[in-house]
Write a structure and sequence with these properties.
Layout: H1 4-10, H2 14-24, H3 27-34, H4 41-51, E1 53-55, E2 70-72, E3 75-77, E4 81-83, H5 96-107, E5 111-113, H6 121-128, E6 132-134, H7 142-150, E7 158-159, E8 168-169, H8 170-173, H9 182-192, H10 199-208, E9 214-218, H11 221-229, E10 234-237, H12 255-262, E11 267-271, H13 277-285, E12 290-293, H14 295-304, H15 306-327, E13 340-342
Parallel strand pairs: 4-12, 5-6, 9-10, 10-11, 11-12
Antiparallel strand pairs: 1-13, 2-3, 7-8
Helix pairs in contact: 2-14, 5-6, 5-15, 11-12, 13-15, 14-15
Bound molecules: flavin mononucleotide.
Length: about 350
């Protein structure tokens, strides 16, 4: 049992959780969690971008009514921070994805379950008590995507071989030859993952799914405009944590342009490199309506299990509150670009 007071004094920053995670995890898992694509410049720039902005306080403002609550897509969240989708989260700790779902419910923040998640979608949805969003991994055979979307309350199930090996992707069994092994089912699924998506696919998802549709990974302002014209409800400006493409720009690079173009007609969100409440406030002041992180809570889980996950969220929450007080802006809705200044190194 983790002593929460001791945890609070041992883990003051997300970096403390990261250091502890590094000690606890096997090297191969830590590198997978912490690392980025190629020369890791995109990973680095996601972090560095927050060092190059400062916040300019407005003093003597009345600070009553501190509130971080945020309404997105008709639901109220306790703060404008959520958990990004991270596939195979259970590599960090058995049951990690359920921990993320429970922590999101308890903190009242969004949790995005990855389409490459391990836990059964139904279980995660139940644990999240309505705070879960689902990330679809599209498939080559559109009938499977159709099924996943239609069932997405929810039919996608993966079971993990406890003694190593590949997860059993139960939803894929129906599409595999009768009697196929778990490995063969997983290979079938991986052959079906369809990275090459086009705007026609987005149009098809829009027809298929009546709920709120969010595209993650948009960076160019014209792509944001195109998403809007396809009836998409929100975008997450993201380079997927610098894990896909080492020449990607930092996610703040195009945020204001995107917000200026579409921010009044769709929900613009962002992830990548956020490690503190003050980082979050910079992105929010630049116009993001909600920010996410994938690694913060996984560092917490890897370090201390579920208590570490809760602590990671608490560090961000306290940081957002302190920053709002410091800059004299007690409510999220009061944030704007005038609080932000570039801060040359
Ligand atoms: C271990 C790990 C697994 C990830 N898996 C996915 C995934 O399945 N789908 C996805 O869209 N992004 C995935 N991401 C990217 C995250 O959704 C998110 O964009 C990224 O973590 C944000 O950067 P941050 O970790 O610096 O906050 C993953 C990230 C990590 C660290």
């Amino acid at each position: 049992m983790v002593d929460i007071e001791k945890l609070r004094s041992n883990a003051v920053l997300i970096e403390d959780l990261r250091r502890k995670a590094r000690k606890r995890l096997p090297r191969i898992v830590y590198d997978w969690l912490d690392g980025g694509a190629g020369d890791e410049r995109a990973l680095e720039v996601n972090r560095r971008q927050y060092a190059s902005y400062g916040l300019l306080p407005r003093y003597l403002a009345a600070l009553e009514g501190l509130s971080t609550t945020t309404a997105i897509f008709g639901k109220t969240y306790a703060m404008p921070y959520g958990i990004s989708p991270t596939g195979f989260g259970d590599l960090c700790w058995p049951g990690a994805e359920l921990m993320l779902a429970r922590a999101a419910a308890s903190a009242q923040i969004p949790f995005v379950l990855s389409g490459a998640g391990i836990v059964a979608l139904e279980k995660a949805a139940a644990a999240s008590q309505g705070f879960m969003w689902y990330q679809l991994y599209p498939t080559r055979d559109p009938r499977i995507t159709d099924d996943l979307v239609r069932l997405s309350h929810p039919g996608w199930t993966m079971r993990f071989y406890r003694n190593g090996g590949v997860p059993l992707m139960e939803n894929w069994v129906a599409y595999a030859p009768r009697g196929a092994s778990k490995g063969a089912v997983a290979r079938l699924a991986s052959q079906h993952y369809h990275a090459a998506q086009t705007w026609d696919d987005v149009a098809a998802y829009r027809r298929l799914w009546q709920g709120n549709l969010v595209l993650k990974g948009i960076q160019h302002v014209e792509d944001a405009a195109r998403a809007l014209s396809h009836g998409v409800d929100g975008i997450i400006v993201s380079n997927h944590g610098g894990r896909q493409f080492d020449k990607a720009l930092g996610t703040l690079a195009t945020l204001t342009q995107v917000v200026d173009r579409v921010g009044d007609r769709m929900i613009v969100m962002l992830d990548g490199g956020i490690r503190s409440g003050s980082d979050a406030v910079v992105a929010l002041a630049l116009g993001a309506r909600l920010v996410f992180s994938g690694r913060c809570t996984l560092y917490g889980i890897s370090a201390y299990g579920e208590a570490g996950c809760m602590r990671a969220i608490e560090i961000i929450r306290e940081g957002i509150e302190e920053t709002l007080m410091q800059i004299g802006c007690p409510q999220i809705a009061g944030l704007n670009r005038d609080f932000v200044r570039e801060r040359p190194a």
